[in-house]
Amino acid sequence: MTWFRNLLTTSTIKSSIKSKTLINPYRKFIFTSLTHFSSESAATTTTETKSPYTPTYSGLEPTKPGEKPRVVVLGTGWAASRLMKGINTDIYDVVCVSPRNHMVFTPLLASTCVGTLEFRSVAEPIGRIQPAISKAPGSYFFLANCKGVDADNHMIHCETVTESLDTLNPWKFKVSYDKLVIASGAEASTFGIHGVKDHAIFLREVAHAQEIRRKLLLNLMLSDVPGITEDEKRRLLHCVVIGGGPTGVEFSGELSDFILKDVHERYAHVKDYIHVTLIEANEILSSFDVRLRDYATKQLTKSGVRLVRGIVKDVQPQKIILNDGTEVPYGLLVWSTGVGPSSFVKATEFQKSPGGRIGVDEWLRVPSVQDVYSIGDCCGFLESTGKPVLPALAQVAERQGKYLAHLLNKIGKNGGGRANSAKDMELGGPFVYRHLGSMATVGRYKALVDLRQSKDAKGVSIAGFSSWFIWRSAYLTRVVSWRNRFYVAVNWATTFVFGRDISRI
């Protein structure tokens, strides 16, 4: 076996030589190539003398000469998604920072709560909207929240989202930018009412729709258990919706459809106990034409929805209390009363517009700092522009995203893509919003279409089955990808033929 030991010794020597001549240069190449994306924590992984190749920056460093300028986008809502779809990735690297990795097609979200549509039909992965963040070497998506903006140093501070997993600790990192677009959206307004966040479910995310569906089906099954009193059955099966805007009305319509078509057939023992109450402080669909509002009221009432005018004073675990002292028991409480500035927006030091949003000028720039823009529900025109704050609508956000993508592409083509390089550049025409109209479904194959430019303007307004057909056709064409359009069309056809899926998974 002497020959085998000699061979082993020779192999070891050769391996040692190779490791010195090949592996070390390879390591040097790797660290040299990736110095823009490194971690400070690596410096603490050894007690030996600090290597010259040890990373010293936690996150993405500023872009270097020869690299594409970097656009950092906060959010994956309507505005952010339309911006990323339109940005020219031959000019820019795109980095998206958001606590969710998909865009939600919010106009159809209410349909997922009762099984008309599946959840994946309204969720569009951000990597499909902008493939560069999955493929391009300088573009990324980070599942994180932005915790602060250092505009002087063109840098944001972020913290990863771990969804309360005990096995993971939030990781803090920094991202340098050449252009920053804040499109972080807004938060549901609670008006400071006690108990709303603890007991109500909002309807803004896919997770909210999943929770509504889970609780609705759970209450249906629990109410059928022997020994449950009639009063408890009525409470469990009382669905209360707060807010008479388009989302609240559409959800109430979908829910009444679900009750009439599916609950009455499959939960015959409790069908007489389930009912829906819609509570609104003023008039439902206040931005719509008066004739359309009256039509919606009649249709909802005919479908079994009880309309109550009142203001919520307090929300308790099993009942809400109105200002006049009326107590309303509930088994499911859905809160849909509009939106307001998020805690992140409130914490920023940027000048604010009326209502507390980030203030922008006519070109959607944050005027007090360089290279920062804001679009969507988190921004509003400053008073100095003389323009009103635009409503928090998907079509506003989408139009702003499209405009800003075109503007940034123009800036990049003219050599202004890098930080502080577009100060005196001619930007062209400012952003102008023209309202295309509003739509809402009220259930039972009925909908409203209001094509007026504003609340006080004259224009076309129609209601009924034809409006429902227009509503579905319009939203089907607005779904972002052909993949999801196919899902939506198939879901609608399946529901029409076989009814809704009422499995509790």
From TrEMBL:
Recorded topology in the membrane: Peripheral membrane protein
Reaction(s) the record says it catalyses: a quinone + NADH + H(+) = a quinol + NAD(+); a ubiquinone + NADH + H(+) = a ubiquinol + NAD(+)
Superkingdom of source: Eukaryota
Primary residence: mitochondrion
Alphabetical list of Pfam families matching this protein: NDH2_C, Pyr_redox_2
All copies of domain FAD/NAD(P)-binding, residue ranges: 70-401
UniProt keyword list: FAD, Flavoprotein, Membrane, Mitochondrion, Mitochondrion inner membrane, NAD, NADP, Oxidoreductase, Peroxisome, Transit peptide
GO molecular function, one term: NADH dehydrogenase (quinone) (non-electrogenic) activity
Location within or outside the cell: Mitochondrion inner membrane
Keyword Membrane: yes
Cofactor: FAD
Domain External alternative NADH-ubiquinone oxidoreductase-like C-terminal: 435-501
GO cellular component: mitochondrial inner membrane
Entry's EC annotation: 1.6.5.9
Described purpose of this protein according to its UniProt entry: Alternative NADH-ubiquinone oxidoreductase which catalyzes the oxidation of mitochondrial NADH does not translocate protons across the inner mitochondrial membrane.
Family affiliation: Belongs to the NADH dehydrogenase family.
PANTHER family: NADH DEHYDROGENASE (PTHR43706), NADH DEHYDROGENASE-RELATED (PTHR43706:SF13)
Protein name according to UniProt: NADH:ubiquinone reductase (non-electrogenic)
Organism name: Papaver somniferum
Lineage: Eukaryota, Viridiplantae, Streptophyta, Embryophyta, Tracheophyta
